[in-house]
Write a structure and sequence with these properties.
With 176 residues, the protein is an alpha+beta fold. Helix content is 41%, strand content 20%.
Length: 176
């Protein structure tokens, strides 16, 4: 990446976690329907994440929490001698406006997050079907998860990890 960037350019990378969080910012548990804390949205994303992990043969299960941390993004940039001023942070984003937004900008951002999650649900239906999940379960999941989000039945946050850095002013240095 650094090789194609102009000296002084800024790189910003964001990664959404494959888990959702309740209004107290606690991760929804991976439990079955009818159990306390159950969420159709979380149940499906847990299944999708499991499929992704299976496809990533180079990732050890013990590495997964680190690979979804802001530190991982920062460590990747810090290991490259072309980047400087590496900064990482995380941010919880409210999905929908189940709690009044303090500004008009946040209101729109929350609504955009809600629309994004609804589009993700639609996009993941074919992936669920191709990974061997029954069509009946997939359709039910889609309906119930979309209902949770549209009706704001659950007060949900998505968590994002961010990293930004600056491409140094010197000529590009190969990173072995």
């Amino acid at each position: 990446m650094a090789q194609i960037m102009k000296p002084g350019a800024i790189l910003i990378v964001g990664a959404g976690l494959p888990w959702f969080f309740d209004e107290n910012r606690q991760r929804y548990p991976d439990v079955d329907e009818g159990e306390k804390g159950f969420s159709w949205l979380q149940k499906a994303f847990t299944a999708l994440f499991a499929e992704w992990v299976k496809a990533q043969s180079h990732i050890n299960d013990a590495d997964i929490p680190y690979r979804f941390s802001a530190e991982f993004l920062g460590d990747c940039a810090k290991s490259n001698p072309n980047f400087e001023q590496v900064t990482t942070w995380e941010m919880d984003v409210q999905i929908g406006n189940w709690k009044p937004a303090p500004t008009q900008e946040l209101y729109y951002a929350n609504e955009l997050c809600k629309m994004n999650v609804l589009k993700l649900i639609e996009a993941y239906v074919p992936l669920m079907a191709s990974s061997g999940v029954s069509e009946e379960w997939t359709k039910r999941w889609q309906f119930e998860a979309m209902k949770e989000i549209q009706e704001q039945k659950l007060h949900t946050y998505g968590r994002w990890r961010w990293m930004w850095c600056r491409r140094g002013d010197s000529e590009w240095i190969p990173n072995n």
